[in-house]
Amino acid sequence: QVQFVESGGGLVQAGGSLSLSCAASGSTFSIATIGWYHQAPGKQRELVAHITSGGSTNYADSLKGRFTISRDNAKNTVYLQMNSLKSEDTAVYYCHTVGFEWSPWGQGTQVIVSS
Question: Residue 77 pairs with which residues in a beta bridge?
């Protein structure tokens, strides 16, 4: 069973924008803290942003001010608006419940930023 389905990635030029979506399943979505993670080749997957059930957000310093995480609990969906993209943002982006990283992950969506 696929718990998370990411979409919206693609190839963009530096300075451009993308909007990622994460469709999640499960009855606990509305009370869960959901994070966006990214993983570049040869590197560990890392948390870049998260949003609590109440809408409180947190961002990694490298993308703070450029990315915005949001959620729509009625749609079981989390979004990541990515602006002013840089080449170093190139990675596969995943969404997942924070604190439950051991559980199955989705396929992720590839973001490639050309310079």
Answer: 23, 72
pLDDT tens profile 51-97: 999 999 999 998 989 999 999 999 999 999 999 999 999 999 999 99
Rounded Cα–Cα distance for residues 30 and 78 (Å): 11
- Rounded CA separation 48/64 (Å): 9
CA distance 77 to 29: 9
* Cβ-contact 94, 36 below 8 angstroms: yes
| b/e sequence 65-80, b meaning 16+ C-beta within 10 Å | eebbbebeeeebbbbb
